[in-house]
Amino acid sequence: MNDRAPEDEAAMEATKAPLLDHLIELRKRLIYSIVAFMLCFLVCFAFARQIYAFLTVPLAQALHGGPNDHLIYTAVYETFFTYVKVGMFGGICLGFPVIAAQLWMFVAPGLYKNERRAFLPFLLATPILFIAGAAFVYYIMLPVALKFFASYQSSGNQNGIGIELLPKVSDYLDFVTTLIFAFGLCFQMPVLLSLLGRVGIISSKQLRSFRRYAIVGIFALAAVVTPPDAFSQLSLAIPLVALYEISILCVWLIERNRAQQAAAAANPGT
């Protein structure tokens, strides 16, 4: 059923343009996005030392008081390129709102008014859920996981040599950023499933019937993207199961709202 008003159709017709105009618009949005990323990169690179120090707080707490409560680097250029990675990581995170806004400004003219109202909340929820996933990693998962890994150190004795943790500057950054991106992307599950429900690809009934397989898949995903310890895997799997249940609720609310709108359209006088 076509529920689009004539004024929406007229507005959509007004936004139609030749392919070349769309390519020019795309180029402009890409240039703005790249400029935003570069500016954010330069800012983050200028403060790379402070940002990296912030990321190492969980490790410092895990190694506090030990003789190895520091990081090492084995190549003369390693720290510099690590700070470059920090700048790129921060540039992506800091510049994401601008990049997302540019993407929205390119796509929005091709959507009907009701479609723009429907998709805008999902666009706003994306960075919020990513930040929630990153904060979960930094404040909950990392401190416990690092203490667990540090517990495998041992002092030497007559029966063997000692084992000491000497984390490298670049390896630690790769470890932390991988976890942040993994958790941040996995926390987008409600957005993805709600969008699929919004366009009618899936339903809340299908999600409920698929729940047991989804839980198995979540635990398999957690085993792949997290360090090989039970706590890290459960730290990702349990929130994802909760987010899956929240996704079912979100899709159900979308379906209920759609049914109410359809009922109101079928009975305009009631």
The largest β sheet comes out as: none
* Strand proportion: under 5%
Number of helical elements: 11
Which residues form runs of ≥5 with pLDDT under 50?
none
Radius of gyration: 24 Å
Gross morphology is flat
Order of helices and strands: HHHHHHHHHHH
Structural class: mainly alpha
How many beta strands in the DSSP annotation?
0
Q: In percent, how helical is the residue content?
A: over 70%
Primary descriptors:
flat; mainly alpha; 270 residues
Write up what this structure looks like.
This protein has 270 residues and is mainly alpha-helical. Helices cover 76% and strands 0% of the residues. The radius of gyration is 24 Å and the shape is flat. The two termini are 20 Å apart. The mean pLDDT is 84.
What's this entry about, in short?
The protein has 270 residues and is mostly helical.
Question: What is this structure's SSE topology?
Answer:
Layout: H1 6-15, H2 19-46, H3 48-55, H4 57-62, H5 78-107, H6 113-150, H7 169-186, H8 189-198, H9 204-209, H10 211-225, H11 230-266
